[in-house]
Amino acid sequence: MRLVELACHAPSVDNAQPWHWRVHDDRITLSIDRSRVLPHEDPSGRNVTISCGAALDHLCAAARAIGVRTAVTRLPEGPSSDVLATIELSPGTPSETAADDIANLRARCTDRRRLTTWPVPVSALDVLAAEAHARGTRAVPVTDKRARFRLEALTQREYVESVLGSGPTPESLALVEGSDGVIALGGPEDGLEAWLRTGEGLSALWLRATRDGLAIVPMSLPCGVDVSRAPLAEEWGAPHLLVRVAWQAIGRSALPRTPRLALHEVLSEEPAVELTA
Ligand SMILES: Cc1cc2nc3c(=O)[nH]c(=O)nc-3n(C[C@H](O)[C@H](O)[C@H](O)COP(=O)(O)O)c2cc1C
Question: Cβ distance 240 to 221 under 8 Å?
């Protein structure tokens, strides 16, 4: 239950927290909670599944910290079931940095403040991308200046039209260079398992970013609407999510935190469920 509590600090689309956990002895099952899905905004369920993937990776990170080994089976009931994963638990060795690791899970948040114009170095984006790769997630830092310009044009039309004008100029390219870093995450496959892994990669990347003093903001809209989805597919392999990366502001703890559902709303213990069923 402690692991589930920590896993629920994971990011989720619109803070929907669309997960349900069942705990039975040394096994935890993670399912989509359909009562919290957003059928109009996310008809395919992609963002909901990515959110559950992030919670799955958070659970495994918490387990590593406190000395519990995990063996994850994804989609144990096949691709048409809402059961996304089972996690078998066994005793392990606590991490020497357990307290910091848990504090890092609790510290992660979406920081949407425009922080600084210091560019995030490509090496830092590569480190984050490697964290996602380690979870089997495609992660492509968009580093070429002209490619970044095209991406800004797709994701921030008004900004681009008023500030950047109609095409790349030395001034507008300099503006793009001084803006946030961007990583294209996931794709090109679509489907439950691919989305789940994108969520796991997002979590791993975000936890590393939090540790490294970097702030993350996912951008799901450009990947979900046709007008930007098609050009994104052509140039960046149909990512599931774009992720903005910027430096964290000093004094960041002042940011109000998004609430979480109570544990009893997202978790059931199997014997208890059997009794009340
Ligand atoms: C799949 C996914 C998509 C998201 N899309 C956006 C987005 O388009 N814009 C945004 O500002 N935040 C986005 N977020 C961040 C969530 O709004 C945020 O995780 C949630 O409100 C919980 O807040 P926290 O991350 O501070 O804990 C997304 C998160 C996930 C997991």
Answer: no
